[in-house]
Amino acid sequence: MQTDDESPCEKSAEYVVPSQLDSVTRILDFISQHGVEVGLTKRQLFEIQLAVDEAVTNVVEHAYEGLDGELKVRCLCRPGVFVVEIHDRGRQFDPTKLPAPDVTSGIKERQIGGLGVHFIRKVMDEVNYRYDPSIGNILRLVKRL
């Protein structure tokens, strides 16, 4: 983990882990530690962790499809916002292009999948994706404070 020494809401930190499901807990601990340092509320922290858990799990299971890889998670705190960026070199996938799932039908009538991205959209204020050939996929999750 690398941290910049700045004021409490002018901080950034970065964490790199293997793209494995057992890395999810370590990433959530990293988010928690950084979130507490910058003064996030319990609710803000819970919502950010929920979104990151869903996003990282999707990357491990779908972008890397069981292959070895690396995830880089970066937290940025600026006045009024807390940002988490997830970088990976797995298969390209833009979650912002997924249609909203049907959450009004009964459970038996619903299609499988898509709820994780739905939760991410609901708890975060902004969800942005971009692909850069030199560094791969970048998912940016923004929570306004």
Describe the structure.
A six-stranded antiparallel beta sheet has the order 1-2-3-4-6-5, covered by helices on one side. It is globular. The two termini are 24 Å apart. Helix 1 runs antiparallel to helix 2 and helix 2 runs antiparallel to helix 3. The chain is α+β, with helices and mostly antiparallel strands and 145 residues long. A hairpin with a 7-residue loop joins strand 1 and strand 2. 32% of the residues lie in helices and 30% in strands.
Keywords summarizing the entry:
145 residues; alpha+beta; 6-stranded antiparallel beta sheet; 3 helices; globular; disordered N terminus
In a nutshell, what does this entry contain?
With 145 residues, the chain is of the alpha+beta class. It is built from three helices and six strands.
